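Let us practice reading a record.
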Amino acid sequence: MMKPLSESPWKYRGLFFLGGAFFAFVCGFIQFKWMDIVPYAAFDQQPNWLKELKRVVSWLPWAAFLVVLVLRFVKGRRVRVGFYFLGTATPTVLLIGWLFLGDSVADLVHRQKFNEETWRNQEQVEYDHMWPPRLCMVDNLMSSGRLDGLSSNQVFELLGPPHDKSFPFGAKSCDIHYYLGPERGFIRIDSEWLFITFGDDGTVNRYWLYRD
């Protein structure tokens, strides 16, 4: 026997929330995979009716919300229109959140403790080329203070030989620099470097990250 509404309110709230989220996710997935679903190699080859169908799919979650809103007036409080709306909006909110916060989360997830052996022999280990070991370890290296007061020979012993290719365009002068990997951020088209300078006494007096 179905429980009275007053005894199981969260059952209906959860069902409508999940229903809205699931339907919005399915419609979003269809849009994302549209070119894999339709039998056309390019969007401009699709007939107008198919382009309109894609537009209709994008509006289906909100059309369904209007249907649920009408049902609220017909069926009463059993139809949880507010929770359905929240479910419908959730995939969009998550996508926007990922666009703004996803890079920071990915950076935190990939961070590693500095290991001098791995740093010096980065190319000898398997790694994701978007997240090479040096890029993942540099924050820990800098925060640890291990570079403070080192001579150039001690730096070379710790980090290996510096980058010997052309100096990054537009960079302020430094004594030595190490290539780390792709620039962290939303659009990863540039590079990230560790810059180091030495003082008059021949020891490290400054180090910082540079993005070209």
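A brief commentary: The chain has a mean pLDDT of 84.
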